[in-house]
Amino acid sequence: MTTPRIALVTGASRGIGAATARLLAERGHDVAINYTRNAAAAEGVAADVRACGRRALLVQADVADEAAVLGMFAAIDAGLGRLTALINNAGIVDMKARLDEMSSARFKRMLDVNVLGTLLCSREAVKRMSTRHGGAGGTIVNLSSIAASLGAPSMYVDYAASKGAIDSLTLGLGRELAMEGVRVNAVRPGIIDTEIHADSGDAQRAHKSAALIPMERPGTALEVAQAIVWLVSDESSYVTGTVLAVSGGR
Ligand code: NAP
C-alpha cells in the first residue's frame, strides 16, 4: 500500500487555489480545501476532487487567525490524516493606491493574511511533515508575486512588500528544513486572469495589461497550478528554497 498524499490548499474556493486543488486531485492527492467566504464555490471544488476518486475536506478558516488555523490543521489530522503538502495560496490585494493614501488597518490586514497566514500554516505543516517531528517529509509551496521583484509602485507597494517577505521565508525555510525531508519553494506569478483584480478596482486588469507581458497575454490559473504541482511532485526532488517565475517572460 502506498502512503496517502494529503495536500492543504489555502484559499482554494476560486482562482489559482481552486485550479491547484483540482490538479492535485488529478495527480492522486487527497485535498483539504480552505476558504473564508464562498462555501458554495469551495463545495464545487470539493465535488471535482471527489470526481477524481480522491477525498476532499472543506475547511473554513481565516489564515490570519491563529485559533482558526490550529482548528483547520486539527480537522485535517482527524479527517484526512498526516499532511504531505501545503500550498500557501490564500492572499489578498487591495485598491490601487499610493502608500501615502493607505491606512494602517489596510497595512495590518495585508500583512496578516499574506505573511502571518503563511507563517502560521507553514509552522503547523512543519510539525506534521518534518522528520524532526516524526513526520515522513513533505513539500510547501508558497505564492509569491512578480510584485515582489517589481515593487508595484502607485498600485500596491504594501502587497509587493508582503510578497517580498514570502520570498525571504521560502529561502530561509527551504534551507532550515533541507535535512528534514521538507522542500520549500515558491511560484512567482505574473499577471494571471483571476477574480483577484476586481479587488484592486479593475476586474479587466489582467487583459488590459497584455502589452506589459512579453507573451502579450495574462496567464491562466491552470498554468500556475501546473508549476505548483511540479514543485509538489517528486520530479522536483532536488529543488528547494527557490522561487519559480510563472510570468510569461515579464
Ligand atoms: P483570488 O481569485 O482572489 O482567490 C483568493 C482565494 O483566497 C479565495 O479562494 C479566497 O476565499 C481565499 N482567501 C482570501 N482571504 C483568505 C483568508 N484570509 N484565509 C483563507 N482564504 C482566504 O486570488 P488568485 O488570483 O487566485 O491568487 C491566489 C494567490 O496568488 C494569492 O496569494 C495572490 O497574491 C497570488 N498571485 C496572484 C496573481 C494574479 O494575477 N492573479 C499574481 C501574483 C500572485 P473566499 O473568497 O472564499 O474568501
Tell me about this structure.
The protein is an alpha/beta fold. The protein has one domain (6-191, 221-246): NAD(P)-binding Rossmann-like Domain (Rossmann fold), CATH 3.40.50. Helices cover 42% and strands 16% of the residues. The chain has 8 helices and 7 strands. It has a 7-stranded parallel beta sheet with strand order 3-2-1-4-5-6-7, sandwiched between helices. α2 links the parallel β2 (29-35) and β3 (56-60). α1 packs across α8 (221-232) and α4 packs parallel to α6. The chain is globular and about 50 Å long. The protein starts with a strand and ends with a strand. The model has no long low-confidence stretch (mean pLDDT 97). The structure holds NADP nicotinamide-adenine-dinucleotide phosphate. NADP nicotinamide-adenine-dinucleotide phosphate binds at residues 10-17, 34-38, 62-64, 89-92, 113, 117, 143, 145, 189, 191-192, 194-196.
Beta strand count: 7
Instruction: Give the C-alpha Rg.
Output: 17 Å
Contiguous runs where pLDDT drops below 50 for at least 5 residues: none
- Note the beta-strand portion: 15-25%
What's the CATH C level? Alpha Beta
Pattern of helices and strands: EHEHEHEHEHHEHHE
Largest sheet entry? 7 strands, parallel
Proportion in helices: 40-55%
- The CATH architecture would be 3-Layer(aba) Sandwich
- For CATH, the homologous superfamily is named as NAD(P)-binding Rossmann-like Domain
End-to-end span in angstroms? 44 Å
**Outline:** globular
Biggest sheet: strand arrangement: 3-2-1-4-5-6-7
Please report the number of helical segments.
Answer: 8
Instruction: Kindly identify the CATH topology.
Output: Rossmann fold
Q: Output mean pLDDT.
A: 97
Ligand identities: NADP nicotinamide-adenine-dinucleotide phosphate
Whole-number total of structural domains: 1
Structural class: alpha/beta
